Amino acid sequence: MKNMLKVYRAMYDMTQEDLSNKIGVSRQTINYIEKGKYSPSVVLALKIAKIFNCTVEDLFILEDEDLYYIMEGEK
Fold first, then answer.
1. pLDDT given for residue 74 in this prediction
2. Residue 18 and residue 20: Cα distance in Å, rounded?
């Protein structure tokens, strides 16, 4: 899963620390999400989207490899 978190932080002139403080997680959590090493829970994704006044789908984008598993399940 790809994410646009770093882009949204830049648009809002927000550091990882700023965002982490607003949503109650560590700065390392934000860093791991941005690097794709950690996928946030639904609740965390919704909190982040609310901060940036956007949808979860704006922030987190499924890649082809993610969609492959969905398509294979339909067969």
1. 55
2. 6
